[in-house]
């Protein structure tokens, strides 16, 4: 039942990638910016969850919600302070700024509390459950339930609420959206809030599953989630979900076959292959570039 | 209702509108005709707030529009159907219409206005669940007009509604524009198809390279030798 265990591992990792990738893809869809500080928002989410569990002694769900609330505010502030004024600048300027914001968050965090890692509290005291003769950590179950629930809520927001429809309208044609009375600034803030909240949630469940968190933990998962978003087709919400899941499964498979040292390399090889042969990703459409 | 006084608009160094003055009275259909690049679209974009005039006065029902952002101007009762329709192709027909009513909170009113749009354009009702990007050009134009009507405008700005449409459809769209006007909406329509525009308009302006060169009732302009030669093909 080894393969079933690996499958669950892959899906858990993939669910975390998918949650982070959603933020990348939503932000890209609306402002055409790869927000490289997104991985650090994920890190901040992990720390908020950690302090909420250990210092405030809140339960898992309240900690998750608190972390999502804090990261959504941080996301909105990042956009407001760093990106908004660059909206009409060349994209390279915004991209460079995003990398700057990323360093700023990482090293402010190190400055504030040192670089030492923390260990997430063991909420389930190593409980396992059995399925088809294989046993799994309870955390995996929580990751899946939380991730699926959040994605359902996101789909509902994007497709059935007024702000979700405004987000899609602005991402298609911001000027036409203004003619409808839609505030582009406010809609973009909402997009950052939603994407960052998902990254915050991903941070908490990452801490829960992999236990170790530190101020630079956002770098690699952030890059992987970016690859997942490109794999699924940047700008596509279902693409980010599928891309994240696929990447998680592939990485786990590579490790399970005994090539765990190659795991990160494989992710980047996927990125290169996608960019070479399928630049619009699995779910991407050939969207015309607006001139 | 709307009055522009010596309005100047620049795109970078390009002087797009060179002191345009124009009036629209309540209840009228006013048309602005002119060739490509004459400044027709710039004028509409200035009224709806997408571009800012560098100089001049823009009065709507007595208050200045110059500093009001585009997304607020809609709520004053001005809706703009932009050139090239600019519908949200990734949204359904219904969602496009809902976006038109974005600032409104009166659910019943929105519902009855949607019914009104479907009465004007029954084709849209048949396609209500379809993605707007799958509609034909004519249907997209109907949707763009319907979407603008969902804001319940007092003044409707139309930019080249005939563009790229078959003659039958152009005929139909113009009849509907007249009907919308008859139901009480004032209309400012910009057109290259001067013949159609002059047929439904009460008054008209001719714009050339950023300046108004002629104005008068539609009848007068139809009879004018210059207009005949330059815009009516003989």
CATH superfamily of the largest domain in chain B: P-loop containing nucleotide triphosphate hydrolases
Q: Which residues of chain B sit in consecutive blocks of at least 5 with pLDDT less than 50?
A: none
Low-confidence stretches of chain A: none
Biggest interface between chains: A-B, 18 and 27 residues
How does the helix and strand content of chain B classify structurally?
A: alpha/beta
Q: What is the chains' assembly state?
A: heterodimer
- Assign the CATH topology of the largest domain in chain B: Rossmann fold
Description:
- The complex is a heterodimer of chains A (about 290) and B (about 230).
- With about 290 residues, chain A is mostly helical.
- Helices cover about 70% and strands about 5% of the residues of chain A.
- In chain A, the strands form two sheets. Chain A has a two-stranded antiparallel sheet. A two-stranded antiparallel sheet of chain A has the order 2-3.
- The longest helix of chain A is centred in the first third of the chain and has 30 residues, at about 1-30.
- Chain A is globular and about 60 Å long.
- The termini of chain A are far apart.
- Chain B is α/β, with parallel strands linked by helices and about 230 residues long.
- Chain B has two domains: about 1-75 and about 155-235, P-loop containing nucleotide triphosphate hydrolases (Rossmann fold); about 85-150, no CATH class.
- Helices cover about 40% and strands about 25% of the residues of chain B.
- In chain B, the strands form two sheets. In chain B, strands 6-7-8-3-9-10 form a six-stranded mixed beta sheet, sandwiched between helices.
- Chain B is globular.
- The two termini of chain B are about 35 Å apart.
């Amino acid at each position: 039942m080894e393969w079933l265990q690996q499958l669950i591992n892959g899906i858990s990792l993939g669910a975390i990638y998918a949650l982070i990738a959603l933020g990348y893809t939503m932000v890209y869809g609306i402002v055409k910016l790869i927000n490289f500080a997104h991985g650090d928002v994920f890190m901040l989410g992990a720390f908020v969850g950690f302090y909420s569990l250990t210092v405030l002694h809140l339960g898992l769900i309240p900690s998750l919600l608190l972390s999502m609330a804090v990261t959504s505010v941080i996301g909105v502030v990042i956009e407001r302070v760093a990106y908004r004024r660059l909206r009409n600048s060349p994209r390279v300027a915004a991209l460079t700024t995003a990398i700057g914001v990323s360093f700023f968050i990482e090293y402010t965090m190190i400055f504030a509390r040192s670089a030492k890692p923390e260990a997430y509290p063991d909420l389930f005291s190593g409980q396992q459950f059995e399925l088809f003769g294989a046993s799994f950590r309870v955390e995996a179950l929580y990751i899946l339930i939380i991730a699926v629930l959040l994605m359902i809520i996101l789909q509902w927001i994007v497709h059935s609420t007024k702000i979700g429809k405004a987000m899609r309208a602005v991402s298609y044609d911001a000027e036409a959206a203004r003619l409808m009375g839609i505030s582009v600034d406010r809609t973009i803030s909402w997009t950052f809030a939603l994407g960052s909240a998902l990254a915050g949630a991903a941070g908490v469940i990452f801490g829960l599953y992999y236990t170790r968190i530190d101020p630079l933990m956002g770098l690699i998962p952030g890059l992987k989630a970016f690859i997942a978003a490109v794999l699924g087709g940047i700008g596509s919400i279902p693409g980010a979900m599928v891309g994240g899941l696929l990447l998680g499964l592939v990485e786990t498979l590579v490790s399970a076959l005994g090539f765990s040292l190659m795991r990160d390399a494989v992710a980047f090889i996927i990125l290169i292959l996608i960019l070479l042969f399928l630049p619009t990703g699995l779910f991407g459409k050939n969207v015309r570039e607006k001139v | 209702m709307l009055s522009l006084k010596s309005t100047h608009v620049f795109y970078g160094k390009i002087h797009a509108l060179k002191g345009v003055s124009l009036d629209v009275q309540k209840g009228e259909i006013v048309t602005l005709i002119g060739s490509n690049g004459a400044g027709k679209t710039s004028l509409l974009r200035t009224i709806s707030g997408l571009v800012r005039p560098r100089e001049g006065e823009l009065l709507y029902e007595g208050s200045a529009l110059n500093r009001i952002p585009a997304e607020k101007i809609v709520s004053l009762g001005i809706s703009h159907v932009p050139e090239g329709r600019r519908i949200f192709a990734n949204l359904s027909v219904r969602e496009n219409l809902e976006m038109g009513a974005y600032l409104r909170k009166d659910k019943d009113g929105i519902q009855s206005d949607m019914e009104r749009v479907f009465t004007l354009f029954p084709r849209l009702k048949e396609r209500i669940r379809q993605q707007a990007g799958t509609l034909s050009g004519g249907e997209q134009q109907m949707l763009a007009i319907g979407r603008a009507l969902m804001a319940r405008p007092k003044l409707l700005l139309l930019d080249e509604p005939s563009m790229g449409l078959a003659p039958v459809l152009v005929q139909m769209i113009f009849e509907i524009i007249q009907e919308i006007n008859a139901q009480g909406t004032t209309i400012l329509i910009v057109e290259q198809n001067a013949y159609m525009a002059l047929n439904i308009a009460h008054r008209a302006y001719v714009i050339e390279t950023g300046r108004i060169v002629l104005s008068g009732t539609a009848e007068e302009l139809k009879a004018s030798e210059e207009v005949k030669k330059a815009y009516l093909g003989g």
